[in-house]
Structure formats: structure tokens, C-alpha cells
Design goal:
The structure holds 2 protein chains of 2 kinds.
Chain A lengths: L10 H12 L2 H14 L3 H25 L6 H8 L2 H33 L4 H17 L8 H20 L13 H12 L8 H5 L6 H30 L10 H10 L1 H35 L6 H4 L8 H16 L3 H29 L14 H12 L6 H22 L2 H27 L12 H23 L6
Chain B lengths: L1 H30 L6 H4 L7 H28 L1
The chains are: A mainly alpha, B mainly alpha.
Amino acid sequence: MKPKSAREVGLFYGIIAGMSGAFGIEFFTLLEYSTLLAGPAVILSLLLCGILNMLTMFTYCELGSSISRLGSEYTFTKASFGGFISFLTGWLRWVACIFTVALSAIGFAQMVNYFLPVNTQLVAIFIIILFTVMNIRGIRQIDLVVIAVFVAVFAIFDTASILQGLTAKSFEPFMPNGLMGALAGVMYSFSIFFGVRTIVVESPNMENPERNVPRSIFFSSLSLIVIYCSVAFFVVGAVEFPVETSIPLLTLAAERLMGPIGGALLNIAGISAAVMSMTTAMSVQTSIISAMSRDGYMPKIVLMTRSRFGTRYLAVILGSILAILFATSGLAVFVGYVVNFTSLLIFGIVNLSLIRLRKSMPRLIRPFKTPLYPYTPIVGALVGFVLLIFVESTVLALGIEFILITIIVYHLRMVGYSRLRLAIGGINFGISGLIALFLCLLRLKIMELPWLVADELYLSYSAALLSVLFFLAGVLNLNPKKKT
Amino acid sequence: MKVGTIVAPVVGAIQILIGFLAMASAYLIYYDPSSLMIGTILSISPENVALFALLFSIIGFFSAVSGSLIIYEWVFS
């Protein structure tokens, strides 16, 4: 009997795959702050996001078809740059997934809070733990019915809005914060369309992928632009700004247009979106950390730890712990910024990968070629990097700190065991010396710290002990017994 | 060396503990949960919060790595 071909689905499946990837909690949680930044011009911001995202998806498409059918940003940059850039990309993608899990959990908790007055942080922790257990047990299947529900809810919302009628007054002024506000809105909404990349991942299952994958990207992006822009249009028309309530913006708009039933409908769609986002992000973060472990960038223990269900539970648990930490912060706007920050950086790097690969491997078989090369990847990379200037200063500082930590981790991982011990030994001596120096300065009253005034003797002994401890650690690290 | 065999696990374990405490402190300083008021207790002005969080996280990270390496060597040697 002839085996069934893996490529058995066509254009329609491609469009559905792209839409299901992009239907996530991001739209529910990020739209509110984007509207605050851009005002009614959020419609323009979303339109720009959709178009720019579609252009970069063609880059993904070329890289996915020529390098790896099971492509990801990490694989693309590994083939074109290798070394630190691929490590950074994998690391960024991993962090983006963890923050997406946190964002989904926050969004989920806010939606549940609409029906029941609950502690949102506890609900966020509970849902992450629940999905961690589900991931370890290998339960990842999400019914496509959810996508139909999603589209249906938005269609009802749009219809109700049309029936209510909108006045042009709602859209004045169109850009209350100017063009910069609209661009900040683009930056903050970017990850809303990011999920279209699922088409590239799903391309091995498609008939005639050279033809169907770019068409799927185009049509799913177009559908998402129409859906999201129309919803944003009606939200702006239905709600008066500034909004002074804890109810999510979309829910509030639905309540205004359809009453409590509308609010409930939107929350059900939001809960479905949160579940979908969390499932995808958890499974992607596990596969990225596993791929990086295979390449020696992460400890091999991640690969070795398999549960009886065949899943790498250590990778799942590690990501979940970090997601809980960020979710319990309750800072939805901050988490949203980090998701967009990392997504934009990845977008920029992937576009540069295409340019680099065209030069370094000109004879590589490319079933699909990005249209308007080199302008498409250049615009994509520029947009990715330029939009980063609109990020909040604290997130930018965190991003820079994060990249510095990535550099340190990369070099610590790459230098080898003996050199690592030497480096750590030296750092221990440095910390020990610094503590001793601070202690001397404080004792001699050359420097003062307000909280170190009380119980001076006790603190002096503690600091001296700490200095000795780090000194001993330095000695122990400089004399390693085992060299591997 | 007997002394080294006794000292190594103690130093390693304390370093890991200090490392995680420092990283947890960095997290608490940065987010400053209203119930704990870490920033107020330590008299950290809002503009210095990021600096203190960075300092604590870096020292905590290296302390945890150093302690882990010492324990690793002690266990497997």
C-alpha cells in the first residue's frame, strides 16, 4: 500500500495555520495600551504592523524553504551567521516565549476576573502550573473549533457595531500624540501579527509549498489586517478616551455595544486566545532550549531529562518558573513591551540573515525567493531596529542588561571548563576585594550608606565574613581538581 | 586535602544560597511589591533602583555559578 503523502493540504490549510498562529492573547492585552499611545490612529498602527509583518514573512518563507522546512529563527541565523548571533537569537526567542506565557497568564486572569472576582496573580500562577503539567504530559492539541469561535465573536462584534452606528466625532483628533504616538503604537502592537510565521513551520505538510506558502502568508495577513483593523475601528468608535476602569478595553467596547452578553462573549474569546498562546509559547520555548542544548549552547541535562510521556520536563519547568516570576509582577504593559522588544530584535536579525545568506551561499536551492530583494529584507531589518527606539526606557535598559548577560553566558559556555573556573575564581577575588574596600570606607566614615548606620558592628562582621567567603571561593575555583 | 574537602561544600552551598538570595532581592527591589516595601527599607531612591537591581543580579548570578562549580567538583571528584 502506498504510504500517505505528508503534503496533503493546500492553500486553505495554510491560511488557517497562519491565522491560528496569530490569534493569540496579544491582541486582547496589547490593543489597550497601543490605543493609549496612538489614539484613534491605532487603526493606522495596526495596518502598518500587518503590512510590515507580511513583508518580513516573505523573508521567513525564503529562509524556511531553503534552509530548513522545520525552520525557526535560531536555525536561520545558525546557517547564516552561526556563533554568538545564533545563540543570541535562540536566547531572545526563548525569552520572548517565556514572556508570552506570562502575558497570556495575565490576560487569562484578567478575563476570568470579569466573571468571578479572583486574585489575578494567583490565577496566573495556577494557569501556568496547569499548562506546565499538560506540557509534561504531552497534551498540546488545540481544537480548530477555537479559531472558528474567535472569528465568529469578532464578526458578531463588528456587526453589532455597524448596527449601532458610529459618529465621526469619535475619531477626532485622529492622532492625539502625533505621528510619533502612532509609531509607538506600531512598536507596541508588532507581536500581534507575529504568529503568521506558523505557516513557515507548517510548510512541510502543504501541497506545492513554493506556490501555496507565499499565498497563504498573503491571504492570512490580509484577513488578520481586516479583522484586527475593523475591531480596532469599532473599539475606538464605541469607547470614549481616556478610559478609567479596570475592565479590558475590548470587553468594555463589547459591553457598550451589546451589553453584558457582548462582554461575556469577548471574554470567552480572550480566554480561548490565552489558552492558545500559552500552549504554543510553552511548546516553542521547550523546542528552542532543546535545540540549543543539542548544539552545546545549553547544558545537556535539558536533553537527558525526559518524562515517561516523552517530553523534556526540565525545559518546561524552567520556562514555567520564569514565566510565573514575570506573571506575578502584574506589570502587563511591561511584559507586553518585552515581548515586542524581543520580537522586533528577532525580526531585524532574521532579515539580516537573508541578506547574509544570499551573499555567502548564492547557489543554495531556493524554492521561494523574497520579492523585491534586497529592499524587502533591508526595510524589514530597518523597521525592526528603528522601532526599538519607541520602547519604554526601563524595558530598553532591561534589554541592554539582558544582551550583556547573554554575552557573558555565551562566553562562559564557550571558553571551556578550566578557563571558566579561572574566570570565576578571578571574579570571586574581585567581589571579595570590593566588599572589603566598601567595609573599610564605611568604617573610616569616608562613605555613608543610610541603611548601614544601625547595628554597625553586626553589619561589619557580616561584610567581613562575606569577603572571606568570596576569597575562599576564589581559591577553590583557582585550584580545580577535575578538568574535563 | 582534608580541609579543602570540608570547606568546599560549605563555601559552595553558602555561595549558592547567597546567589539566589541576591537575585531574589534584585527582583524584589526592581518590582518593589507594595506589601514588602523593599525600596523604602533600603532607602533606595527610584532613580537608583535599576542600578541596585543590576548590581544584586550580577553578584547573585556569579555567586550561584561559582557555588555550583565548587559543589559540582566536590561531588564528582
